[in-house]
């Protein structure tokens, strides 16, 4: 046992103090004097010198702290950092961080490629989605007065649906009677061809009041002086239409003609406006004075004809909400018996928000969420690969620490590295976006571009920076913790540390991927369900053609001519029952409850309608040419109508249904038959009550069924016949099943987007898994060698390596399934007719996830398992 | 206010007051503070010496190394005229604080009184 030497202990303590750079010699001496005083006193109280020494030293507190306190007392400025501490920022080092990062990229090409490519794919996807969302959200905001424009909606008192069509006198009344309404315009849009000389083009006409140009910002390129469109025979052309008709000539003052319900009307061009941008809800090729609709007999003075849109501009002193409460009773003011009140929908919400709530905004949100998910997956990949590779860098960290790197410095180094990767990925992503944009524009029918405002550039940079920092933070914090002594001795646990974190992240990736797979499968199943559902009618090989101009006036002759060919099976005309919607709440019938409000759809049909669509009658009969009264008093209703109207024995019951346009019908008629329910609208909505009536005056479309056996020949014949009957007329026909398919365009787009997003998500996950698996295999080379020497088969080794990954996928499935189940269930609820959420989608998603994992891991595992153990064990 | 801030705020006044009665050295000052405060204030050398050095730089006190009666080198601190003047001002300031605190805090109930 050594005797305690106080002098030696104090000397040792003093040396410790001297090492502290903050203390000057004098200060150290003073502290020593103080220490000795204390020891002396403690010894004087009877303590033994050793205990007294330790107590006195402890009472002084840690030397480093003391040093800092002394330094603080000495320094002249608060912010100065002691010279012996590593500065917080060294500009020289910052550049060195970038250089080191670049060297790493060059040295580990495959790894860097996987890392950067994955990140770039995620970023590209996020940027594309950002662009698309920006486009969607920018709809109708380009109008100078966008915030003060409202669309007038009608709401029935005791129901919660809203309609954007209103009566003709409403617009002028609003502008006249309400000071909050600065200007109001009515609008009625329809397709109608426009002709100049021998050039004719189909186009979309929009009939508007002169106030239109005050409310909306569609600037004039030519003309536009005075009050455009106040002359009933004037027209304002959209720029593209003007270019098509006149080329480089000046269209002002020229005479053009447009076709409306069978006849051509001459118009004088008074102006040309810029085309409506792609983010405009109002689309038109040319503008006419609103009263052009009267040329086809439509009434614009009748408060009961609800056919027109009305837009209002609110005074800048009023808000839309205020104005709404003011104008709510405008219809009742003019028509006290009306059951409708008015609402104002802000123009800027027209595109994405359905008046009743919901609407495409849901899809924008879903897609944005998917974009975030993909970015997250890519970020996770980056984290995983970086930490997995950390072993290779342990020595580097050890060395850096030994030569004086602080932990903070190392964290900064790794973050800069991750930012260099991210920046590289951003450049790649932007080029990819540039290449993909034309394709996306085609798919979405939009015109997105890569021009960013300052704010958006900033947002993009922040997004990239955040991705870089977030995905680099875990490796940075993890790697910088290595103890130099252990690392350099070679005793750092071989990449095992951080394994659980990696596992968690991989599971998270697969949760997202599997969830997306379930979503995509469900969406595509619902889509195919809607496309292939038995609509109750036969729409195969039915050509749909709008009846206009000479086609309309010569319809009978054309029909006879068409039917001469054996390839044409049937020809029928209607009021566009499948793609257009006409409904009335003015139907009346025998025994009707006077309080009942029933809205019924009306199909104007001809005698061949049942034949062309293979309609099935459940009671009574279809219209027949042999009974002349069928055309004047006969009605056929569907099963839903019978149920909703509460008719016990429908046949022979009296029914009244307002039929516009003169078709020689009597006011009251008789139900002669009940047709089996069939779908004539999108499957979003339930089958409505429907009344069929013979009404030739209302025909807008013809349907031609041709023989599927000789499709090309039949089509050629139809085309030739129509051209002969209506020469020089734009001929545009569609197949009815395609037209019906277009009703699900939004869903189809979402399906496409989700499909691509899912493919991308799965691909990125694979990339990460592939990298991780190759790393694991490499890590366990020696283990595998030993196992093989001891008799393990290649198959056994493969299953050992892949088994782990499969477990993760399983765990991920268990998390992803309930979440995606809930989300998809609520999405399916938006359809009146929908598929069940079967177990198949879930099983398939799990299997797909597993298969994908197996594929990316299996390759590496097989390579590791096949390797000769001699090679892996020799170098020890 | 943490106790560290409290020490920092009051240390100057306490040291000036102690040195008014004559010169002293670090260890003695720590002991005196402990005694005067009846053990409530326990300064460590890490607290005291930086304050002393700062006050010396401000010219409130002055120091000199001398041999102690026990034959050891010791640094003694002495009040300067400026320090004495500063003490007068400090006293006025602290009186104000003292008056306010006395009125605000009131008598602290003792544990045995509460029973």
Question: Brief description of this entry?
Answer:
Chain A is of the alpha+beta class and 876 residues long. Chain A has 29 helices and 25 strands.
Poorly predicted runs of chain B are: 111-115
Q: Helix segment count of chain B?
A: 5
Largest interface: A-B, 21 and 20 residues
From the 3D structure, determine the CATH topology of chain B: Arc Repressor Mutant, subunit A
Note the main sheet of chain B.
Answer: 3 strands, antiparallel
Derived structural class of chain B:
alpha+beta
Largest sheet of chain A: 13 strands, mixed
At the fourth level of CATH, the homologous superfamily of chain B is Winged helix-like DNA-binding domain superfamily/Winged helix DNA-binding domain
Oligomer kind: heterodimer
Helix content of chain B: 55-70%
Question: Which strand-content bin applies to the residues of chain B?
Answer: 5-15%
Provide an overview of this structure:
The complex is a heterodimer of chains A (876) and B (115). Chain A has 876 residues and is an alpha+beta fold. Chain A has four domains: 6-74; 146-349, no CATH class; 361-530 and 745-874, no CATH class; 542-740, no CATH class. In chain A, α6 runs antiparallel to α12 (361-388), α6 crosses α14 (407-444) and α6 (109-137) runs antiparallel to α25. Chain B has a single domain, classed as Orthogonal Bundle (Arc Repressor Mutant, subunit A), CATH 1.10.10. Chain B is 62% helix and 14% strand. Chain B has five helices and three strands, in the order αβααββαα. A three-stranded antiparallel β-sheet of chain B has the order 1-3-2. The radius of gyration of chain B is 16 Å and the shape is globular. Chain B starts with a helix and ends with a helix. Residues 111-115 of chain B have low confidence and may be disordered. The chains are: A alpha+beta (876), B alpha+beta (115). Chains A and B meet through α2 and α4 of A and α2, α3 and β3 of B.
